[in-house]
Amino acid sequence: MESLQVILPKQNEPHQQMIDVINPFTQTVVDSIPAATLADVEAALVNAKNGFEVSRQLARYQRAKILAATAAIVREELETFAILIVNEAGKTIVQARKEVSRCVNTLELSAEEAKRLSGEVIPFDSYEGAVGRQGYTHCDPLGIILAITPFNDPLNLFAHKLGPAIAGGNSVILKPSELAPLSAIKLVDAFFRAGLDEHIISVVIGDAKIGGALVSADDIRMVSFTGGMETGEAITRTAGLKKMTMDLGGNAPVIIMADSDLNDAVSATVSGAFWASGQNCIGTQRIFIERSVFDQFSADFVAQTQALCVGDPMDDTTDVGPMITSAQSTRIQSWVESAITQGATLLTGHQRNDNMYTPTVLTNVPNTSELCMQEVFAPVVILEPFDSFDEVITWANCVDYSLHAGIFTRDLETALKAADRIEASGVMINDSSDFRFDAMPFGGYKRGSLGREGVRYALQEMTQSKVICFNRS
Q: What is the set of active-site residues?
């Protein structure tokens, strides 16, 4: 990557610490990158302040042109990006290619929205005391956006922050996960090759101390964070008076009504539960099946789960690759064993080998179990029968945080009732909970989550309204 030293601190400082990026499947070092220091944080802030002065002056067509050119570079280098995602995040190559394609879509949507960004005419003479005036609103950029993301979508999650931020005329400091920072670095390199001024984006990679220094900096105008509840709470305590958007995870329920197409429901929810080894904030975690079809659905679901190919993520036939670290596979192994001790029934899976954890299906899981109440972020799913619609809605809504939910039914009235009563920011009807189109609004619904992503909606978050008023009297 020729412009690596433009993006990261120079690697010639004495005693500088390096961060090894480990391939989750092979356990080998993919690359080593310099860990940022507090001095690097200060340098990034200065760079971003200069970058904002450049970015805010770019005409909308210039922003759109750069975003479209970046999308074209990513599309042209799709396979290279995909292999990088496999190597650092452990996604299968098929899933990685899809993520790259989604990144292209996100950037192209951002280019379109850059051209559409506009205000509105204010009807001053509609109100007594304002006659003789006319005016309009204008969308101004916020300033420096701090974007922090986890490992699980190392390319497209940053595109969802970078695209709208650039479209709105901001500058950005990126802090990717130390576990999977390489895709973000390559994406920034693509922006620079597309003609973006190198002051407009900075990349800072480091530990919680580095993150805290960035979050607390007065020059940061907005923190856009995707990650866990604990880190999100720490950010809010540290940030001070800043705008924030937060996606703090989910625990997605999917309801299977007896009148649904069970073949479609099984296929969709198997994919929804085990895509990206379950490391997916909108992944299907709890499936509630109407009792009259529970046995059939469960048998088919277990059979399709057992048919999944688990192994080398670089193999096109692999369905499920490794989890990101052995610490995470150990954690979920412990959670499943705890649930079994409490009375849960294991239907399939629950085999661990280093980072590999086989797709696991359980039933009779106690409501107090971590598997029910927490975000599993692993290839584990719960199947439970229900008897009444009111009962299943109560169960679907019993967790503290929510992103997406789903319901399978042929009955329109049932679907509409579910959409109205399920407490989630998105209700997918006859789709798994993990369906997401990059133009739709996306974010949390309950505790902790703030704001919305999805290109147009993120752009609204990353700009501010200015009123221009002419007194013509």
A: 247, 281
Count of CB atoms situated within 10 Å of the CB of 209: 11
Q: How far is it, in rounded angstroms, from Cα 370 to Cα 237?
A: 26
Burial (0-12, 13-18, 19+ Cβ within 10 Å), 227 = buried
Dump pLDDT digits (tens) for 193-231: 999 999 999 999 999 999 999 999 999 999 999 998 889
In angstroms, rounded to a whole number, what is the distance separating the alpha carbons of residues 446 and 425?
A: 9
Question: Is the distance from CB of 4 to CB of 31 less than 8 angstroms?
Answer: no
Residue for token pair 């009259």:
292
Tell me the average pLDDT across 390-397: 97
Q: Could you identify the residue written with the tokens 């993120």?
A: 458
Q: Taking Cα atoms as reference points, which of 345, 335, 263 lies closest to residue 301?
A: 263
Residue 133: CB partners within 8 Å, gap ≥ 6?
A: 124, 125, 469, 470, 471, 472, 473
**Spacing of C-alpha 201 from chain mean position:** 20
What are the Cα distances from residue 217, in Å, to 48, 231, 291? 12, 17, 54
Best CA proximity match to 429, nearest among 199, 259, 301, 207: 259
**Residues shown for the chain:** 473
Tokens describing residue 308: 């999944």
What tens digit of pLDDT does each residue of 298-339 get? 999 999 999 999 999 999 999 999 999 999 999 999 999 999
Q: How far apart are CA 23 and CA 428, in angstroms?
A: 34
Residue with tokens 């197409």: 261
**What is the per-residue pLDDT across 440-457, written as a single tens digit (0 to 9) for each?**
999 988 876 789 999 999
| Mean pLDDT, range 149-167, rounded to an integer | 96
* Cβ neighbours of residue 254 closer than 8 Å, sequence gap 6 or more: 269, 272, 284, 286, 287, 288, 405, 406, 407, 408, 432, 433
In angstroms, rounded to a whole number, what is the distance separating the alpha carbons of residues 35 and 204?
8
Instruction: Confirm if 344 and 366 have CB atoms less than 8 A apart.
Output: yes
Instruction: Say if residues 419 and 76 touch (Cβ distance below 8 Å).
Output: no
Distance, in Å, from the CA atom of 380 to the CA atom of 144, rounded to the nearest integer, reads 39
Q: Is-contact 427 418, C-beta < 8 A?
A: yes
